Amino acid sequence: MIGWIACVCALWTNGRVQAQESVTAVGSLNDSIAVRQPDSLLQIAADTTLQVDTAAVDTTARKKSMLEAPVTYQASDSIVLTGTNMAYLYGESNVKYRNIELQAERIEMSMDSSIVYATFALDSVGSEYGYPLFVEGEQQIEAKSMRYNFRSRKAYANEVLTQQGEGFLTAGVTKKMPDDAMNLINGRYTTCDEHDHPHFYIKMTKAKVRPGKDIVTGPAYLVIEDVPLFPIGLPFAFFPFTSTYSSGIIMPTYGDEMARGFNLRNGGYYFAISDYVDLALTGEIYTKGSWGLAARSSYRKRYKYSGSVDASYLVTKTGDKGLPDYGVSKDFRIAWTHSQDMKANPYRTFSAGVNFATSSYSRNQLNMLYTPDATDNNKGSSISISQRFPNNPINISATMNINQRSQDSSLSVTLPDMSISMSSIYPLKRKHIVGKERWYEKISISYSGYFRNTIHTKENEFLRKNLIKDWKHGMQHSIPINATYNFGFLNISPSVNYTERWLTDKVYHKYDTARNALMPVDTVYGFYRVYNYNAAISASTTLYGFFKPWAIFGDKVKMIRHRMEPSVSFSMSPDFGSRKYGYYEDYSYVNRQGETVTGVYSPFKDAMFGPPGRGKQGSINFAVENNVEMKIRSDADSTGERKISLIEKLGFNISYNLAADSFKWSDLNVGLNLRLSKSYSLILNGVFDVYTYGYDVKTQRAYPIDKTRWQAGKGFPRLRSTSTSFSYTFNNDTFKKWFGGRGSRKDEDSPSNNTENENPDGKQDETGQTKGGRLRKAKKTNAGEYDEDGYYNAAVPWNLSFHYNMGLGYGNFNPEKMEYNYRLTHNLSFSGSIQPTKNWRISMNGSFDVEHGKFHSLTCSISRDLHCFQMSANVIPIGPYKSYSFSIAVNSSLLKDLKYNQSNTNRDQQSWY
Asked: What are the tens digits of pLDDT across the range 490-500?
């Protein structure tokens, strides 16, 4: 058998010179038969019996080859060459010609006509494998059978499969042209990767495909789950593809509402301006007159900055014109985010986080109705810039802040909020120190200045406000001078502080007996200096106490340490309420009982920085801060011990004014900080009332009495106010961290940790397309759904986040107890999600008013991944904005308009009785 093959090869080599000129073949045989040494008998036979006929040799000029490069071929099993100029390749075979490659399990080559035929093979159980794969540059075509001509560059294939853009194209019969275009009949285009049985596809009777550019079809119709939807048909269709950054039309989405009618939304044009910035202009229009415009832009410059801008304007018309229910709402929104790269400038930083919208925008914009922004009552925006100078203590910063409250449409704007600061310098310190540091060299001076311009108003009145008369503006300068001297364990710190305010107006008031309050009567504009100064001296030290638990309690606790930092200070300042300063004015009025009542007020009380306080100050301030830590034995730490914070901080602060004629004690301030875990600390700050109260029956008002609670026999100061807030997120790992659990085995064996055999046939490019690999019957991973033993991984990812605010303070006064009743205010906001299976996801967010015992807002969302479709439902089950929306759409952005939407907004809920 081996000799027969050698004879055939020798005859073909010596007798077919002309065919060898047409197809230069270089074979690479991997079969074991091909690597054996030739039999010597065959060589003798070839030399003696197979003499070459000299008359048969063509002595004319050889014809020029029609192929411009060699054709190389190889097979993993065997190659059979016949005397009819045919080559048969078995096993994993491929044929290469320039940038063209054809792979298949079976390949037939005709040396005379340069035609190659490729097809698949069947295994022992009758399953198909080794489909032909044609690769030419970036173009890839997979088929069940293919015939290709190297000379004409034409191909004819059956059951073609190729990836075009985000989708897959299959066809019964396909003809490839020399310009790489493909003409096909009975084609299917889909984004579903179940190639042999897609969940949906667009059936094309005939089409022309220009790979990487577009598909143009004749009559086409939609097929879902093998059910043809002939009514949803098109006489022709056009599918464009692009892998480059380019401009284009943004197709709108359609919908309908009872209040605003049928609509087309989010349609417009996309401008690819440059590699650094883009722009999308979109709009929406409703049949009942509502309309809107939007502009979105993103920009980025590497190592410099990045950000995005989103601006929109929306006009909403509801009801029928001429009827009482007719209304027009004009809303707008501006969102801007900007961040600067740290490498751009080490001395200058600029950032922006703007989220400004009218109070009714989120309720009128369908895209935001089911987002947390729709239920957020407070919105904040800020823009900040700061500048430092090298080798200079000066620092300049400016910010713009906007705070919105949607509940009452109130608006607080600060523009700008500018500060100039100088860090501490030592002007008396010698440049070249010789000997000990002198006492005056420890004197330091610093500076801080603020300029603010702010207003608090309603949204619809903001643009009508006058900059001079309605805005509040002012500037404040502060110059502290201090020094610190150490006397053993005692630190003495004297200081002097000077503060000056520059204001532009003062408001005179007069008591209105009808309203029973001071009312403004005149505003005088000008330049006013309001200053104050004070001097202080403080002494502080640090004390430590240690306690070792008794042996009867075990040896787990090694030591408990208590650190206490007491301090006492004395500060003094003159009475800036004196007439010589001009910061305060007197007023008088006659009450209903005919009595003359006098009082004092400041024309600068509503100014930006306010006036200095009244009365002489000769205050002694007492403060104590405590910290308690415990050291325990721990095998988990390399040192064998670990520190635990029992009380992170517990501080007390109170002062006594020696210069005051009454109410000499200040409130007692208490601060508590408990570190409950590594990531969470409970912080409580409280103010305790020192004095008692009286009650005026005539005016039904409470007033403080210059008598402390301990003097009145009521003991310790009473809590006046406290508040706290905390947030926490629970998830699958929370309890593992708490109780020291380990991660499951599936976490270690998850697909993210095991990347082997994910794509054995090829690799993916940046667009996600497979290069050099077969699409049909490719191995698909289960994405961690089953473990290596075939058991189902019953992991249910979930998370629950909540934010709790609590405040306790004085409420109404109780004349019987001569005390204020407490009033507790608290609310709870929450959000969470759960994924019971790989494809289901449920999420929600809302807020609960604990004081009134009801939900303030609640939004629920459910989504289901249907392989190539995405189903989602959003519901607001309670409240004035009760509504729902349902959508099922194709995942691919190319066919994003292939969807079904159904919604019901709060405007659609009509009451007919």
From this structure: 999 999 999 99
